[in-house]
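$ ./design --mode recover --in tokens.txt
reading tokens...
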């Protein structure tokens, strides 16, 4: 990570070294936090946060589902993010808002612990690598199932839930793959460790739904809209594991990974083994949207104001 000088924490900008928590922080023990992964890109209108409002909405929804009241308004979080980016001097960056239960009464009942908020920004390349974005990644179906909604709340982006992704990621990496694909507890395809998944067969696109315990990805929503606007038929439905082996194309979407094709699943090439035409078509428009080059999606870019020069 390329550390930047300032982190916004509980209403103030603090130097990187001072952005600390107590060892009895509740979230450290029990995973009682919710967070977002957001990105800002350099666009022709200046640095702009991609689908910022959607990320803030999901942060508040995740918090509410775990009975956490965020002690700031949505607009205050947006402004604080803008300021943190401005102060970092970065033209493009990854943004990590984190809401967590701080130090308070120990034990599993969390509601008497304070709710703390931090926002950090740093420079971060694509999660699955630029090479992966170009030529696709090798994935394997994980032995770990995506956690179901009768155990936790997969639709919430909660810190403790990520132990599931961590186990799958380590397993995939140790076996020599770049990414894991998790099935749901019924054996249908769910998603990657930090990405939603799309398959393409005979010109039609399909992607799993909440029925398969997916996180409601913001880039998933963007890719669905782009694909439909391009005239492709896209179904949100359950996807069987063998459809991964039958697919002509597979791609994944997520803030960290952006739009990354999958070229191999469980040692079987996907289609020709190179990213296919539909993946490429959606990826092109998606990249344009991220970088503010797609007029049609201009309102997805929340431009960070340039601070007035100090006299
Ligand atoms: C488990 C999981 N699924 C899917 C996604 C993709 O979501 P988004 O497109 O909102 O980044 C993420 C990343 O946030 C994730 O962590």
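writing sequence...
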């Amino acid at each position: 990570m390329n550390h930047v000088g300032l982190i916004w924490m509980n209403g103030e900008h603090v130097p990187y070294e001072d952005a600390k928590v107590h060892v009895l922080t509740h979230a450290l023990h029990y995973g009682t936090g919710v967070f977002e992964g957001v990105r800002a890109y350099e666009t022709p209108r200046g640095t702009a946060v991609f689908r910022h409002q959607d990320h803030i909405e999901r942060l508040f929804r995740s918090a509410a589902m775990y009975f956490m009241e965020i002690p700031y308004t949505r607009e205050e979080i947006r402004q604080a993010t803008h300021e943190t980016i401005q102060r970092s001097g970065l033209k493009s960056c990854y943004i990590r808002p984190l809401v967590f239960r701080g130090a308070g009464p120990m034990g599993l009942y969390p509601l008497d612990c304070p709710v703390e908020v931090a926002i950090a920004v740093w420079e971060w390349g694509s999660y699955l690598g630029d090479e992966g974005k170009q030529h696709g990644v090798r994935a394997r179906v994980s032995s770990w199932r995506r956690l179901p909604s009768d155990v936790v709340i997969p639709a919430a982006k909660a810190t403790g839930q990520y132990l599931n992704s961590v186990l799958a990621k380590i397993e995939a990496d140790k076996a020599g793959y770049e990414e894991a694909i998790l099935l749901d507890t019924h054996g249908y395809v769910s998603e990657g460790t930090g990405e939603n998944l799309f398959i393409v067969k005979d010109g039609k696109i399909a992607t799993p739904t909440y029925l398969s315990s997916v996180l409601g990805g913001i880039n998933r929503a963007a890719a669905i809209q782009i694909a439909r606007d391009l005239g492709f038929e896209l179904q949100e439905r359950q996807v069987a594991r063998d459809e991964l082996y039958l697919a002509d194309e597979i791609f994944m979407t997520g803030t960290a990974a952006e739009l990354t094709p999958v070229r191999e699943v469980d040692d079987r090439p996907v289609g020709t083994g190179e990213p296919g035409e539909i993946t490429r078509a959606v990826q092109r428009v998606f990249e344009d949207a991220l970088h503010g080059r797609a007029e049609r999606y201009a309102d997805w870019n929340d431009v960070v104001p340039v601070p007035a020069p100090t006299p």
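exit 0
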